[in-house]
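User: Batch of two.

Assistant: Item 1 of 2:
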Amino acid sequence: MHPKIFTVFLLLFFSFFQGQTYSTEFYNTDNGLPQNSVKDIIKDRYGFIWLTTENGIVRYDGTNFSVYKNFPLNSQRFTYFYGSIEKDSIFSAGGYGDKILLHGKYPRVIKSFKKNQDIIAVQNHKDYFLYCSNYNYDVSRNLNLYMTFQKGRYFITKNEILYQPYGNGPDQHLKNNPIRNIPRIFAIGERLFRIDDPTKKVIQIEEGKITEAFTAPLLTDTESKIFWSKINGQVFILNRNCFYTCFYEGRQLKVKKLIQLKHFKEDNLVSVYFDPSYKKLYLGSSTKGLQIISISDFISSKRDPLKFSNVFYSTIPYSDSSVITPSGEIYDRNGYMDSKHFRNHTQFFVDYDHQRNIMVRNEKELKIYQKKNVYTSFVPAFTEGIIKDFMYDSQRYYALTAEVKKSSRTEFSGRLIIFKGLSFREVEKKFFFDREVTKLIRKDHDHLLVGSIKGLYKVSLRSDKISKITTGDHLSIRNMVKSKDGHIWITTLGKGFYLLKNDSLIKMPLDSNQNLLSAHTLLEDGKGFFWIPTNNGLYKVHENQLLKYSKDRKHPVDYYRFSKESGFDTNEFNGGGNISGNQLKSGEFVLPSLDGLVFFDPMKVRAYYPGNIYLERAEIDDRELRFKDHLYATQESAQIEIFIDVPYYGNTDNIVMSAKMDGTPNSRWEPIGKNRKFSVFNPGYGKHVLMVKMLVSDRGQYIYKKINIIIPPYFYQTFWFKTLIFLGILLLVYLLVKWRIRFLTRKNQELEKIISLRTKSLSDMVENLETTKTQLRKEIELQKKLIGTITHDITTPIKFITLITGEVIEKKEFDTQRTEKIFNSIYKSSHQLYNFTMTLKEYADIYYQHRSDESKLYSLYKLVEEKKVLFHAIAENNGTTIINHVSPEIQTWISKNILAAIIHNLLDNSVKFTKNGSITINSSLEKDFITLTLKDTGIGMDDQKIEYYTQLQNNIEHEKLLLQKYGMGLHLVLQLLQMIESKIIFEKNPLQGTSFTLILKNKKDD
């Protein structure tokens, strides 16, 4: 081999992947497989994994195994796959020449093959069996094999390789190594490679000609096993429990390390497939079923668990790629490195001071290990309480401490201590808290945030005041983190995590399993994603989704969960320390857990989302069927279960699917459970649309699929049947009516005319009489009551005038003072009689005008404005302002004369009793009622008057009228309101004056 080629190969050979961790799953007849022999493994174009076994063909979607073994064949034993994945044309051969075609996600038996798809080819009267993977035949029987390519075929015998091109080209003969157990031949694309054992080289053959020879130690090593599959286009090398991939690129044969396995038993391994999209290695055994190895991006760094504890809490970065614990142990992604042997410490606190000295503590004191001594010696700091958290800026130190309360041995109080300068020597300020403090962070230049086991506090550095930020819950603060854009995020113990915005806490939504109740901290990567460790898994979410949720609670937030299957050894991460996660300069994150320190690069860890949904299967009455876009069922089917097939090989917690059925009452999106079924109960006949949506990216993108569920009606439920029945009934009714009309028409024509005329006349007369009767009754009753009241009230002034005049007649002589007194009494009594008479006349005028008045539409605003102008001069003379706030848009049918009299009386009273004040008139309209409010600032009505008029209004027909005591004005108003079916409400204003609220029935009189 040419020296340059050999050098290039060595460089390629040693360019392996860095060692990776992995997790393993095993499947056999106990958990899904129909048989423990997995002969071949492929992945179709739709994303499903297919296995051949000796008891059927198996489809695997990442969660469930679907077994197909009831084919109408002589045997259900299948060996290898061949054909084309891209063309959705995958074949498998059975034990007796039976043939299966995988197409459209389902297998079926076929009877004929196209050219170049036979499993046996005949050449020179010899049978050659199709060769497309290592272990598809037991070649110890010296079988002759053939391989197909785009331009020709290779026929392989014990000592020779014959290339036969399609067309008229000459055959090419090549020597071959004697076949032992497995042919030392494999293909990559259109190139054939033969391992030449004598020369320890790999020969490249193209179209029957040798074009290159490579020195490939791994391929020629007798300890290596080669696994290849032509349909998958993959070649693997297994050497000393290490898997390598072999591929052709840039005219070079390249080898890369895939994964190093521990305690791996390679016996009976017959099939290998690697899924690069999910980084999973599938290994099929002839006796032990299927093994799935998931290559992880996470590494758990720890020491020997039999000798050391691997429970970690607080850590800080030590170098660009390592961290140090409070005990002084240093770890990187490859495990334990060294120890500084810090003694007598607690695992919950470690930090740097401004000189990069390392601070650790115990229950009594703070120790500072000196950087200048390579952290081999320490100096004690202060012993004032147990330090819980620490921070510093360019001017001073800040420390949170806790100490046991004197009144209790189990409860703690807290302090925030601010030191002068960058040392612990002199205290500048102290702030005291009744509860144990947990976390400290700077909010802005003038404020600090202090978390405690009972809530969150804001400390002002200027005013030295402490204010509590509450949400109604007693929050135990676990951590506080400020993101790159300045937002402050709060994690709690058992209450989820929050966004601090405008000094209030906004609770973020939880994941479906509510594991985020125990969120420990948040680490932000370079793409704006938060990584949140919890007591049950690691979660990833983009900050923008959380910020959108804080503005709109309906905005969805999608969390991605990493669990043990992702590569770490426990789902329980640890919080409680002052630092619950680190970001190293190398870009890696480090999280403490109950079983090691978890190292990972967030920019390289991939979140796996499903790519497609398939709605093709359903179960109706315990019978499974397949469909495309339309699912047909009958009304006898009480329940329809629709299977939602999703090829997905990650954590099923990250499948976010929901579905809804259109056309049903209260249709809404319902989450799909892990069984991936949607059940429909008695949907009724007609066309129903089932919509399914699924999250496919960490940016909140969804894909949608829909199917039509068609349930035909019974014949009597069809439109045409109902139409015919309706038309038949109409026809029958028409004929009956027509016959009856003809029979009665002649007989009833004259009688109908006479009855019609008389009925109309009598109806009109009765209606008029009833109306008149009602009006007269009310008028008579009202007049009786008014006359009786006026007669009673007028007796006193008349009697008084009679007595005075009699006295004058008898005595005849009076002095001037006595005369003036008598005439003044006569004047007052006469004036009272005059007012009674005028009020009575005004009432009569309004009443009879109303009876003859026609109802017309007019503006309420203009009517009030007219009355305002009328009383303007009087009000102005009293120093009073009349304000008209009635809406100009209100139009009314209420009798204008009556309403004008009512407003006049009310406005007259308000002007009369209001000095140096204001009278405001407002209005509102609600349905058929107008509310008119007159509010003054005068002397106001007393409670006795308000009670009297309120009782009088509620029982005006039976209450006694006190006209002499209270005058006729408001009595008249009440009588007029009764005439227009309206009400008045009297109320004393809170400060001064009275409010009169009219509730007017706004309707047109017929």
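Item 2 of 2:
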Amino acid sequence: MMADDPSVALLYHRYAGKALPGAHREKCHLLAWHSLDVAAVGWQLLAPERPLMTQLAARLGIEPEPLRRLLAFLLGLHDLGKFSRAFQEVLKLTLDDMAPPQGRPYQQRHDRLGVLLWDECWNIWRKEGVLRWPDGAQAPARKLLVPMDSLMAPFFGHHGRPVATGQLTLSDFFVDDGELDDATAARDFVADWAALIEPCWPVDKLLDEAWLARFKTLSWTIAGWATLSDWLGSHRDYFPYCQQAMALADYWPRALEQAGVVLKATGFAQPPEPIPYAGLAQWFADRVTPTPLQQKAADLPLQAGPQLFILEDVTGAGKTEAACILAQRLLADGHGEGLYFALPTMATSNAMYTRLGDLHHRFYSSVSRPSLVLAHGARELNEAFERSVMAEQRESDDYATMDVSASTQCSRWLADSNKKALLADVGVGTIDQALMGGLPFRHQSLRLLGLARKVLIIDEVHAFDHYMQTLLHQLLAHHARQGGSAILLTATLPRAMREALTGAWRHGLGVDASPLEAHDYPLLTHCGARATHEVPVETRSEVARSVAIDWLESEEEAIERVLAAVEAGECIVWVRNTVDDAIRAFQQLRERHPDPERCLLFHARFAMVDRQRIESEVIRRFGKGSMSSLRRGQVIVTTQVFQESLDCDADRMVSDIAPIDLLIQRAGRLQRHQRGERLAPVLQVLAPAWRDTPGADWLSQAHRGTQAVYKDTSLIWLTQRVLRQRGAITMPDEARTLIEGVYAASTDDLPEAFDQAHFERTGMDKYAASMATHNALNLEDGYQLNGDFDPWQEEREMGTRLGDEQSVEVVLLKRRDDALGLWVDDHRHADRLSRCRLRASQARKLAPLPERHAEQWEALQQRHRGLRFVQPWLPEADGTCGYDEQWGVSFEKENPR
């Protein structure tokens, strides 16, 4: 530590906040300076004109400037625990005039020590005038204990989870050796910091239960802001180490200046400027006529405050563009700063990322450069995303090029982790990344901060099971409380699910749910605090159609239909319900197809390298741009991955029986694109022979795989019944009849033989909802630990999805010249491309890695850190199971050929 003026070398200048052993110049960064660095970033992020500050001030009833000073002051206390000599021991500094280490082991994190010091001292500091308490505010300390805990929790919990002291004792960690008292040094820093920033303590509001409840709901956003400020304020490139002692007032301007620089470098200097929606011609060079849904989205009057839109329409109605229209209108009307597109799978996220292209730029002014980031677990395998983030920009003095370089730098920082990705102006990713904000994952508050002022667009909400629906309801309620808006897209949605979604939204707004009455389809539901409107929408004639249903009763009959389509020169898809059924059908079709190379198997049990290759091949053969010569005689045997992710279509389709919404979705891939003259579309459904009074084994007897997937046999029977009654899937005219005929059927209408299966499925649905409620954070309780239960316990297993069985990630290995290597080599993402995901029971069938390869496996894990969390598998050493790039993982000794 050095000081030009010894009079400014105070006790707190003897404590380091960060240190870098072996550094040549400054050996450490004083704790006071790091505290001010972080506070300066938070100060800049809370500029009075920024929407985040506007929202917080309005919800808390405090003017922006006083609120800014209070929150920045509290943020400056986030590392108060580092004044502990126990923490200083960790830094192992042996510098003159610095706090000498005491030789005590560092057994508690500094964030927890900060809570300990604050809890012990804040009231003493209040009485001593250190905190600059407002005149006349003499509320008893006992009445402020609980409110003060709630107020401080987001700041001490800046490492991704709230903290509490438990049974710690102050003297065990904060030393007073006569020469230097840790607690006194902390008090002196707090006093000087308070004198500089002049915080305004809202004592009366802290005693108001209604105000405190509002603060608790906002505390997640405040915790995310504190974490972001700490991350940016710890960036050594922008906040270089400084050991020099000086007055806080002299360092503060330097910190503010550097905070402005780091915000600009990472894309947070100012939000992009939205512009009003001015028609599709503003987006596309070609003349585009809006669909009825898109026109309704453009004309619908917006409500005040947070609002929810549910868009129900058939495939091809332009739901995505309609959502973008609403999103741009909401942005321009001040209802958000950015967007997040949440898709059900990584594949659909990739497709949306590509589809969005540079469209997001059209939502903002020409001088804005909104960041666009892809957020899901395998995004580094998306080549378009890799190019956009990692592309090197040529050096030039040209302003435009320099600006692009800055934009690339922002994108790189935001793309560094999925936690940061939701902070981008425009994000595209899986729904899981958003749902994780409501689960006790570390830094989940950063995700909620990213979503707080965004328009949240969620596609295919009908596909969510009861577990995900429960998590979604919580997320929507919280999003409404935070002032955000949401747009939900679906082709088929049972009325009960729609009522639950609007009910969750209105709960978040603090108003009673209103019953829904409309049976129209297509339908736009618009829900705000004032009212819920159900707006019927016309159908575009090109997408209104009827797909006839033809029933098949055996696999052999299905194979004959597929081969007949091949002989007629058509392309055909067979969607199976299980991978094993798909493999068996593919094997039989290859043996009988006149050109076996025109047969393709597509399912989820491939290594990522082969799944990507097969996806590309599916798009090449069946995609929108595929030519008739290539399509002739093509066959794909696939599972639900085909219906979920790819913009493809077939001349003919066979499908195993499945619940009605899935059959509607699959039929949407049948003759999806205009290709000239074709025979009328027919969906050929493989199902058990119809029985008015079936037995309990009606489905399992002939379709064991389907029974294993859809355990509630009544859904399958009701689907077959309504389709036999209607004879076709007629959209949109009979959409409600089909969906409600299955999902709103009375239990009295079910065959008695299905009572047990239906009862078990209902119980599983209740269990799934209960597990979601148990796993989820209660966001209304605020960002703090309550009682003895800590939901952030590391050993807890939870996720955004709840299957009947946990899945396991497996990495495929092979030997090369007696050395163990990854399945894929010579690729920067070889470890990810070599993995596949299996059910836990399937993974247990794989042979364990031979002991003689243990050392080589350890070396691979050192090289690829992510491999520490996956199961290794060497197929060539497995006498039972195998892998083939054409068939995927096989659980039989002999791979199919």
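The chain has a mean pLDDT of 88.
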